[in-house]
Amino acid sequence: QLQLVESGGGTVQPGGSLKLSCAVSGRSLDEYAIAWFHQAPGKEREEISCIRGRSAPTYYTESLKGRFTISKDNAKNTVYLQMNSLKPEDTGVYYCAGGYFCGDFNYWGQGTQVTVPS
To answer: pLDDT confidence of 26, banded at 50, 70, 90?
Structure first.
């Protein structure tokens, strides 16, 4: 089993940056795909990006691709989401999820809140 714990959320002014972390325990990061999701208030959860093994990450939201970057540190068993040029619409809860393949997630973190005031 995987355990995932997100951290790094907070309140940031428009145009600012945050780096979220997803600490993975239970198994090696190399064995699993890890993704970041965003759930805006009152909306469904949307997948931002997924990374697995040594493959290039996949970004599912074109509008975020230039501002958000997923990366991982195998030595720390941690996946990151660097978020730049933040906008009020980026407000919401950010979750990381894990599974054997991108798109097939069985494990979820508790989420971390990001607030960008308008």
So the answer is: confident
